Amino acid sequence: MVDTSIHSTIFKFHNPHHLDFIDFDVHHPIRSILFHNYDIIESWDASGRSRPCILDHVQRSLLCNTVYLGCDYFECQNPHCDNFTAVHRHCHSRFCNSCGIKYAKQLSVKAAFFCLDTKHRHIVFTIPDRLRNWFRKDRSNLNLLFTAARNTISALVNASLIRKLKRKGIKLTHYALKNYRHINHFGMIATLHTFGRDLKWNPHIHALVPELIYSPDKDSFKFFTHFNFTKLRKTFQYELLRLIEEKIGPSFKHARSILYKDHPKGFYVHAKTQKKNEEFENKDHSDDINACITYNMRYAGRPCIAESRIVSYDKQTNIVHWYYHDHKDEKRYDVIESAVEFIKKLIIHIPDSHFRNIRYYGFYSNASRKELDHIHELLGIRKHKDYSKKTRQQKQQRKMNKLRYRTHLIDSFNRDPLKCKCGSIHMIRWREDTMTEHTEKSVLMKCKDCKYEEQVPEWVLEELALGDHGSGYEMCCPNCDGTMVEKSKYNKS
Predict the structure, then answer these.
(1) Axis-axis angle for helices 52-63, 38-47 (nearest 10)
(2) From CA 319, how far away is CA 341, in angstroms rounded?
(3) pTM of the predicted structure, to 2 decimals
(4) How many CB atoms neighbour CB 215 within 10 A?
(5) Domain edges within the chain
(6) Distances from the Cα of 195 to the Cαs of 16, 98, 259, in angstroms?
């Protein structure tokens, strides 16, 4: 993990506009927009108008793949060749597009490793407009969406058991069902998306549910293909409103009755139907699963908009031109707005620190991996295929190796980044870890105007200083924006 404590320090030591960035990078336009409006974002943070995590993610994304985070140096093994390659470190922020792509791919590979080779239903749980701002004001309320979606699937696969217990006058929740013997176990991968194509605040859950349930008392599984849409909608509505009322209290009863009146059929839940003519048991469904997982986890670690959708950015007028395709008619809509408004739409969807956008339930959870391995064995016997843990781990490792820095560039661009022009291979010689070893050497700096003094790491001065080392270090004063020089050369200046 990257130590984020130094990110703000880098921007404190020097004016960020002295960093070497071009006006508009077609490959990273979001980075360019954030850089030219960094002062505005910093003012929001200073005034308390933005969440603490926003400035940190912005700083990390701006410093990504630069020398300021450190780098690894590779030298050619040929003694007659002095070529070398510098590989810069990455920020690993969930707001960085370059880091997020790799992060999402890794999540997809790990999820596909334990997913069952059977049909999966892609279910989308949505909420009405009236409730959206409530989840925006307090981000911790988003946990209720996950809980409501989990309880809905649990009620669906255990509908017969719930009916029997209701006849006895027993009111049940998902947690109460665990105490009963004849409960059916399910699996679910839930992903939270807080945006639509138009970047508006629209929290909803994308759930990937296998069409298979496991009965522990019988030690067997059966296919579960019938998803009652009416029951899905009404159950999700009931569970979500019940959880909200438990958190808010009796004051929510009036709003709850209005929501029931406005949505008599329940909250909208989309569950795409499957083709009836397909051979269910013998077909390999790995491709379908991978495609669905990739779609759900696409924005788990990167901004809410693909950078290819940003047409242009005018630095002089501070205007951004971007577009989106509407779900209803698939027509293209162009949006031309100020960069400030565009940034506001982006930062809304930055998740809070330590908030998990992807969660696993049922036998897909970490606590039930032994049970999942057993289900894989039963499914392998049924299909006459090898689904052992060792085989699945080998497949996962092969896919993960393709996502490494060197192998990814070779497979994507047919270029070995560590291959020298002379034909030899570069080997790592030394590292500059500026995130942890920046305090080894420091220089005492003093401001010419306000007399402010501070110990500044030498690596910061070498990378950010306006002057060169021969004429002495210079930097901007963090106190008055004046010029700071080495104290040993202060009297001479």
Answers:
(1) 150
(2) 9
(3) 0.78
(4) 14
(5) 98-304+349-385, 439-493
(6) 30, 20, 22
Question: Would you mind telling me the total number of residues written for the chain in this entry?
Answer: 493
Taking only the tens place, the pLDDT of each residue in 388-402 is: 888 888 888 888 877
- For every residue of 317-355, DSSP letters joined together read TTEEEEEEE-TTT--EEEEEEEHHHHHHHHHTTPPPTT-
Cα Rg of the chain (Å, integer): 27
The string of pLDDT tens digits covering residues 253-298 is: 999 999 999 999 999 998 876 554 444 444 555 556 777 787 777 7
- Closest by Cα among 194, 204, 200 to 324: 200
Q: Which residues contact 345 (CB under 8 A, 6 or more apart)?
A: 199, 200, 304
Which ranges of 168-252 would DSSP assign to H, the alpha helix? 174-177, 229-248
The DSSP symbol for 245 reads H
DSSP-based three-state secondary structure for 123:
strand
Q: Do 419 and 75 meet the contact criterion of CB atoms below 8 Å apart?
A: no
Neighbours of 123 (CB within 10 A): 23
Tally the C-alpha atoms within 13 A of residue 294's C-alpha that lie toward its C-beta. Answer: 10
Give CA–CA dist 235/149, Å, rounded. Answer: 9
Q: What is the per-residue pLDDT across 154-205, written as a single tens digit (0 to 9) for each?
A: 988 888 888 877 777 766 666 556 667 678 899 999 999 998 889 999 999 9
CA dihedral 177, 183, 189, 194 (to 10 degrees): -30
**CA geometry: angle 36, 39, 44, nearest 5 deg:** 125
> Pairing state of beta strands 187-195 and 120-125?
unpaired
Strand (E) positions, 94-228?
Answer: 120-125, 187-195, 201-210, 212-215, 220-223
Short-list 69, 5, 91, 1, CA closest to 433 = 69
Residue type, 76: C
